[in-house]
Write a structure and sequence with these properties.
The complex is a heterodimer of chains A (184) and B (251). Chain A contains one helix and 15 strands. Chain A is 7% helix and 36% strand. Chain A has a domain of 104 residues. Chain A is mainly beta. Chain B has 251 residues and is α+β, with helices and mostly antiparallel strands. Chain B contains six helices and 16 strands. In chain B, strands 6-5-16-13-8-9 form a six-stranded antiparallel sheet, with helices on one face. A six-stranded antiparallel sheet of chain B has the order 12-11-10-7-14-15, with no helix packed on it. In chain B, strands 2-1-3-4 form a four-stranded parallel sheet, with helices on both faces. Classes of the chains: A mainly beta (184), B alpha+beta (251). Chains A and B meet through strand 1, strand 2, strand 3 and helix 1 of A and helix 3, strand 5, strand 6, strand 9 and strand 11 of B. Strand 2 of chain A pairs antiparallel with strand 9 of chain B.
Chain lengths: 184, 251
C-alpha cells in the first residue's frame, strides 16, 4: 500500500471524493469515496478508508469499510477489522478472522471490467490515430540527421510505425497553436 | 548530427558547464550546428532554421523553461527533441531518465526516442515538465474530472503527464496532505526535520482534469507563474518524440 508507483489513482487520508473512479490500473483508497469504484486490476481499501458504493475489479482487498456490493473477477480479501455491508460476487473469497461481513456471497465467474478498452477506443475515436506505435521505438544511428542531404531533407525514421489513417486528411492529433508565454 | 539550441547562461558556473557540454557534443561527433540564443535568434528562428536545413533532431540545452518553450513550438515541425539540462534540474533529468548532463549526451548519441505527451493548460499553454500549484497555506482545493470530484487541503500539488502500461496518456495530479502537525517545541522540531511530517499522498489521473480553489492559486513551472486557478489540464498524446535513456525509469 505504500508503493505509490503501483496505483493509477490514490485517494489519501482526509480526502473526500464524490463520483465514480474508473481506472484501468489499480486504485488505492485511504480516504472516503462516495460512488462507484471500478478497475481492471486491483482496488485496495485501506484501514481508515470508507467506500459508499459498489466496487468492481479483478482483485479487491478491504481493510477498511465498504457499504456497497463488491464484484471481484478474481479474489476478494477481507482483512481483520474490515467491514463490508453489501453483497459480493467473487471467484475466490478470503475472509480473515475479525472481519465483519453483512451480505450474501456468490461464488461465480465474473467478466473483468474493461476500462482500458473503453478508454482506448474513446481515445482512438477522439484523436483518430492508431495505438500500435506506442512504446519505446528505438532508432539507432542510421537515421541521424544529415543536414547536407539534399534529396531527403525530412526523412521519417524507418522504424517508426507512426501510421496515420490515410483516409483522414486531418492530423491525428489536434495540434493547438503552441503558446507558452512565460512571465518573466 | 543534431541542431543544438543553447540557452543563455545566467551565471558564470552555468557558462562553464555550457562550454563543457559544447566541447563534449563536438568530441562525441553529434554536433551538427550549435546556436546560442540571443535577442536576434529566437527559438522560433532556430527551429525554422533547423527544419529548413533538414535536421531531424533538435537538442535544447538549458532549463525547464527553455525546454518547455522548445517542446511547445516543436509541435509544428517533424523533428525529434533531445534535452541536455543546464544546471541541476531534476524535472528534466527525470523526464529523460538520466542523472546528469553527461548521461544525457550518451542518450543523445544512442538516439532512442519515445513518444511523449504534452500537458495542456487552459487550452493555451503547453508543458513537458511538471508544474506545481503554489498551495502553501491557501486552504482547500477541488480536483474535478469527468467522473468525480475530490476535495482536499494539500501541502503540495504537482501536475505531470504520464503514460501508463495501457498506453494511455493522462494528466496526473499528485497531492500531498500533511495529516497532523504538532504544536510548540514538538511542532518546531517537526518542521525543522520536515521529512518527519506525516503525509497522505493522493494521485488523481484523467484525460482532462480541473483544479479549483476558493481563492486563486498560482501554477508555477520552473519558478514562473503561468496560470491561476481555476485551471483545466488536458493532455496531447504523442505530441513529441523525445530522446530518452535506454530503459529509462520515466516519471
Amino acid at each position: 500500500m505504500e508503493n505509490t508507483q503501483e496505483f493509477d489513482t490514490m485517494v489519501g487520508e482526509d480526502v473526500e471524493l464524490a463520483g465514480s473512479i474508473k481506472n484501468s490500473g489499480s486504485i488505492l483508497i485511504n480516504g472516503t469515496v462516495k460512488g462507484d469504484v471500478i478497475s481492471d486490476e486491483s482496488v485496495v481499501v485501506g484501514v481508515n478508508a470508507k467506500v459508499v458504493g459498489p466496487i468492481k475489479a479483478q482483485n479487491v482487498q478491504v481493510a477498511g469499510a465498504v457499504e456497497g456490493s463488491i464484484e471481484a473477477s478474481d479474489t476478494l480479501e477481507m482483512l481483520p477489522e474490515s467491514r463490508v455491508d453489501g453483497d459480493v460476487k467473487v471467484k475466490t473469497l478470503h475472509v480473515q478472522p475479525g472481519a465483519i461481513f453483512n451480505g450474501s456471497s456468490a461464488m461465480v465467474d465474473i467478466k473483468p471490467p474493461i476500462i482500458a478498452e473503453d478508454r482506448l477506443s474513446s481515445l482512438k475515436s477522439s484523436i483518430g490515430s492508431t495505438d500500435e506505435d506506442e512504446g519505446e521505438t528505438e532508432v539507432e544511428g542510421e537515421d541521424e540527421d544529415e543536414p547536407e542531404a539534399e534529396d531527403e531533407p525530412k526523412v521519417k525514421d524507418d522504424t517508426e510505425d507512426d501510421t496515420e489513417d490515410e483516409t483522414e486528411p486531418e492530423e491525428p492529433i489536434k495540434k493547438p497553436k503552441p503558446k507558452l508565454e512565460l512571465e518573466e | 548530427m543534431y541542431y543544438f539550441i543553447f540557452d543563455q547562461p545566467t551565471n558564470r558556473r552555468l557558462a562553464e558547464t555550457a562550454k563543457q557540454i559544447e566541447d563534449a557534443v563536438v568530441s562525441q561527433g553529434i554536433a551538427g550546428e550549435i546556436i546560442h540564443l540571443n535577442p536576434t535568434k529566437s527559438i522560433e528562428y532556430c527551429l525554422s532554421d533547423a527544419h529548413q536545413k533538414g535536421y531531424q533532431t533538435v537538442v535544447a540545452v538549458g532549463d525547464p523553461k527553455l525546454v518547455n518553450k522548445v517542446a511547445a513550438r516543436l509541435l509544428r515541425f517533424d523533428m525529434v527533441l533531445g534535452i541536455i539540462p543546464l544546471g541541476e534540474h531534476l524535472a528534466l533529468l527525470e523526464k529523460i531518465g538520466v542523472s546528469n548532463w553527461e548521461e544525457a549526451i550518451v542518450a543523445l548519441r544512442q538516439r532512442r526516442w519515445q513518444h511523449a505527451p504534452l500537458g495542456h493548460i487552459n487550452n493555451s499553454n503547453l508543458f513537458l515538465t511538471k508544474a506545481i500549484l503554489d498551495v502553501s497555506g491557501r486552504g482547500e482545493i477541488t480536483v474535478i474530472t469527468a467522473d468525480y470530484q475530490a476535495k482536499l487541503t494539500p501541502a503540495t500539488v504537482t501536475i505531470n503527464t504520464r503514460t501508463t502500461a495501457n498506453n494511455e496518456h493522462q494528466v496526473v495530479v499528485r497531492c500531498e496532505v500533511v495529516l497532523q502537525q504538532k504544536t510548540g517545541f514538538g511542532g518546531w522540531w517537526q518542521r525543522f526535520k520536515h521529512h518527519d511530517l506525516p503525509l497522505s499522498v493522493s494521485e488523481f489521473s484523467a484525460d482532462t482534469l480541473r483544479l479549483t480553489s476558493p481563492e486563486p492559486i498560482n501554477l508555477i513551472i520552473d519558478r514562473t507563474t503561468i496560470a491561476r486557478t481555476p485551471i483545466e489540464f488536458s493532455v496531447i498524446p504523442k505530441a513529441l518524440r523525445l530522446i530518452v535513456k535506454k530503459n529509462p525509469n520515466i516519471k
